[in-house]
Amino acid sequence: MPTEMIRRDEREDSANKDTLFMLGGVALLVVGAGLVLTSPIAKKYMGQLGLGNLTGGIVPDIERYFKLRSM
Questions:
Q1: What's the pTM?
Q2: Which of 5, 30, 40, 53 has a 20 to 30 Å separation from 15 between CA atoms?
Q3: pLDDT class for 21, splitting at 50, 70, 90?
Q4: How many domains would you assign to the chain?
Q5: What is d(CA 12, CA 23) in angstroms, rounded to the nearest whole number?
Q6: In this structure, are residues 61 and 67 in contact, taking their beta carbons and an 8 Å threshold?
Q7: What is the mean pLDDT of the chain?
Q8: 7 to each of 14, 16, 48, 50, how far by Cα in Å?
Q9: Mean pLDDT throughout 34-51?
Q10: Which domain holds residue 46?
Q11: How far apart are CA 48 and CA 14, in angstroms?
Q12: In terms of domains, do 54 and 26 share one?
């Protein structure tokens, strides 16, 4: 019986560690993207791509998708 409890605790610890590593990776990704996008060079290139126009064209498609999905 004690060995079963130890094994269960090890599995729970493993799941907790996996979740912690995943959230840590996401946090590092967000921080890295923020650092890159604060660079003046990156801002210049993003402005040249015209991402504002792209997002304006995508919004109606997303709205239609959610309307169809709710039916």
A1: 0.46
A2: 30
A3: very high
A4: 2
A5: 17
A6: no
A7: 77
A8: 11, 14, 56, 54
A9: 79
A10: 40-71
A11: 46
A12: no
